[in-house]
Design brief:
The complex is a heterotrimer. Chain A is of the alpha/beta class. Chain A is built from six helices and five strands; from the N terminus they run αβαββαβααβα. By secondary structure, chain B is an alpha+beta fold. Chain B has two domains: 92 residues, no CATH class; 281 residues, Cytochrome-c3 Hydrogenase, chain B. Chain B is 49% helix and 15% strand. Chain B contains 16 helices and ten strands. Chain C has a domain of 87 residues: Beta Polymerase, domain 2. Chain C contains three helices and seven strands. In chain C, the strands form two sheets. Chain C has a five-stranded mixed beta sheet. Chain C is globular, with a radius of gyration of 16 Å. Classes of the chains: A alpha/beta, B alpha+beta, C alpha/beta.
């Protein structure tokens, strides 16, 4: 196990990218920060710049106009960086797959570590996905 | 002489149905021009809609926006029912009331969401946490009534997909009763707090004339003194049979928009209570087989304003043309006049005031116009806004 | 005066067809040359609100429907314009009288390739920067 990767599992700082999403996943992600779920207890927080981030949380169906920005953001992220595909759009482009304005699915653009399906995934599901990722990195 | 700076905000931001990219042109503290670039979220839904069966389109349009996920399908089914002869002619009574309940629950959750984020932008993170805390029970109601916290899949042509069970009604009423003091608290907090007033009053003004020229809709228009609300003007659902008020303010500033949204929540609670009391028995959907050729227009007052759907059918099982106009499409364009002339520290809240999106501003960057070098980012801009509030607080205002 | 009579009187012979689908949905057709004047009249003089416009490709060309809303009466007045026989199709922009139409005209231009004459800012709104010119997603595919 990569030591540097293992160090990421405490107080994960998350940068959130929305690449053509409908907003639902995005508000459920913010919901995770608010009193009922409150993941900030564990040091998980959204950060304003990808250069501070340990994890990239991607939502949305990969719209052609946003893909170049997504690539740029991934390049700027300090490595190692885990990528979480949140919501069925980021996982498989959902019903927008056939649209003229959609590009490749997320995992063909950048490597993805965790897939959290759901439309939208409930905050519990998002938290559970992150917990699974942490466990996997720690090798538990 | 102050530096001229360009501030790009965006391009895409986590919270909104239409990611926008704002470029603010500044001279010192003052915003002198703005470019709005959108399209980062364009998914080609109008084209996809032409390839789907009329029944499937309802699920598609639900995913236009996660926050208005009952308004878009509602406007869509109204447009199709307009071809068939109108909602009243097609849909059973009970379904009409259920539609109204879902629509109003959605308005409460959307306005609470906005209130929280507006609080965050002016440096009141407590407001954010509290508003979202009170939003959770509303989402629980959605989960109970529709099966999902968002994307309710309630609307279908000719009725609704799920019934409200009799045993659910007391639960909904109890949750609403608990929400009333919370909304009142927010109203008191906003009206009485001198700092909030100082931050919001007279900021980001959209005059009545500008509101007409940009044809803005919803709370943005009502804050500028335009007395319009689709629920009353072009009644759908059960609104014409219920007792409720339209909130109109004159000043056009952000304070007016905030007050309108808070008071609308109270009205929504009233509407839902009446609907539950009057909920008639009977079927929840009608059997609609074919959609005849023709054109139909459906309008719904979404939390952000009038949501407009136009359907053209040629008698097959798919729409020939489906035009969707979300309320923010009109409202966001009006930012052009609301932001210019204001200060940089007010820009975040002004852009957020039409309820387009908030987190776009998380990716703001301030650039020097001469060097193109980044001197500030979005969080600095929010910080600037929050510091202004802190200054006002400290100033014994 | 009733708003309908007012519109009929003001527009006069410009109305080629008047169809009331229901009490709150009125469709009227005007010619392509008249649309600027009609929009100015409806938006400025009758003070209707511009809701949106929708365009569609039909066998004989293109059709644009401008939707104006009369809020007090809850009625939508949809003004239909047919564009036939010209390539690229073109029509006068109504943005100079009605700022609200700026975005929707840009959208129709990029989606269907309809040129809006005298539009102050006709550039891409939604599609990606590297989208090929001349490829209009909402046009029907020629089989």
């Amino acid at each position: 196990m990569d030591f540097r990767l293992k160090a990421l599992t405490k107080s994960i700082w998350v940068f959130h990218v929305s690449a053509g999403s409908c907003n639902n996943c995005d508000i459920e992600i913010l919901d995770c920060l608010t009193p009922r779920f409150d993941v900030e207890r564990f040091g998980i927080q959204l950060v304003g710049s990808v250069r501070h981030a340990d994890a990239l949380l991607v939502t949305g169906a990969m719209n052609k106009k946003s893909i170049p920005r997504l690539k740029k953001i991934y390049e700027q992220a300090p490595k190692p960086c885990v990528v979480v595909a949140c919501g069925i759009c980021a996982v498989s482009q959902n019903m927008f797959r056939d649209s003229y304005s959609m590009g490749d699915p997320l995992d063909k653009i950048i490597p993805v570590d965790v897939y959290i399906p759901g439309c939208p995934p409930k905050p519990e599901a998002i938290i559970s996905g992150i917990v699974k990722l942490v466990k996997k990195i720690r090798g538990a | 002489m102050s530096h001229k700076v360009i501030i790009p905000i965006g391009p895409y931001h986590p919270l909104q149905e239409e990611p926008e990219f704002f470029q603010l042109y500044d001279e010192g503290e003052k915003v002198v021009d703005i470019d709005i670039i959108i399209g980062y979220n364009h998914r080609g839904i109008e084209k996809l809609s032409e390839s789907k069966h009329f029944d499937q389109v309802a699920f598609l349009v639900e995913r236009i926006c996660g926050i208005c996920s009952s308004s878009h399908p509602y406007a869509y089914v109204l447009a199709v029912e307009d071809i068939l002869g109108g909602e009243a002619a097609v849909v059973p009574e009970r379904a009409v009331y259920i539609r109204t309940v879902v629509d109003e629950l959605q308005r409460i959750h959307s306005h609470l969401l906005w209130l929280g984020l507006a609080g965050h932008f002016i440096g009141y993170n407590t407001v954010w946490m509290w508003a979202w805390k009170y939003r959770e029970p509303v989402l629980d109601l959605f989960e109970m009534v529709t099966g999902n916290r968002n994307n309710y899949a309630m609307l279908k042509i000719g009725g609704v997909r799920r019934d409200i069970k009799d045993e659910d009604i007391p639960v909904i009423k109890k949750t609403l009763d608990e929400l009333v003091p919370a909304v009142r608290m927010f109203e008191g907090a906003v009206m009485d707090d001198p700092v909030i007033r100082a931050r919001l009053e007279g900021v980001g003004i959209l005059t009545r004339e500008q509101a007409i020229d940009y044809s803005v809709v919803g709370p943005t228009a009502r804050a500028s003194g335009l007395d319009m609300d689709v629920r009353r003007d072009d009644p759908y659902g059960a609104y014409a049979r219920l007792d409720w008020n339209i909130i109109v303010e004159k000043t056009g500033d952000i304070f007016a928009k905030t007050v309108i949204r808070i008071r609308e929540m109270q009205e929504s609670i009233r509407i839902i209570r009446q609907c539950l009391d009057k909920l008639p028995p009977g079927a929840i959907d009608a059997d609609v087989k074919d959609i005849p050729p023709g054109e139909g227009i459906g309008r719904v007052e979404a939390p952000r304003g009038e949501c407009f759907h136009y359907i053209k059918s040629d008698g097959t099982n798919r729409p020939v043309r489906h035009k969707i106009r979300a309320p923010s499409y009109m409202n966001v364009a009006s930012n052009k006049v609301a932001v210019i002339g204001g200060t940089l520290s007010d820009a975040t809240i002004t852009l957020a005031a039409v309820d387009p999106c908030y987190c776009c501003t998380e990716r703001v960057a301030v650039m020097r116009r001469d060097t193109g070098k980044k001197v500030m980012n979005g969080w600095d801009l929010i910080k600037l806004s929050q510091e202004k509030t802190a200054r006002l607080k400290g100033g014994g205002a | 005066m009733d708003i309908r009579d007012q519109i009929k009187e003001k527009l006069g012979k410009k109305i080629m067809q008047w169809h009331e689908h229901s009490s709150r949905r009125v469709y009227l057709s005007v010619s392509r040359q008249d649309i600027f004047g009609v929009a100015e009249c409806l938006f400025k003089q009758v003070a209707l609100r511009f809701a949106t416009a929708s365009a569609v490709q039909i066998p004989s060309g293109f059709e644009i429907v401008y939707h104006f809303s009369h809020d007090a009466g809850g009625t939508i007045y949809s003004v239909r314009v047919l564009l036939e026989g010209t390539e690229p199709p073109a029509v006068d922009s109504i943005t100079p009288v009605c700022s609200a139409a700026e975005w929707i005209e840009r959208e129709i231009w990029e989606m269907l390739g309809i040129n809006f004459i005298n539009h102050p800012n006709l550039k891409r709104l939604l599609l990606a920067e590297d989208w090929p010119d001349g490829n209009y997603p909402l046009r029907k595919k020629q089989d």
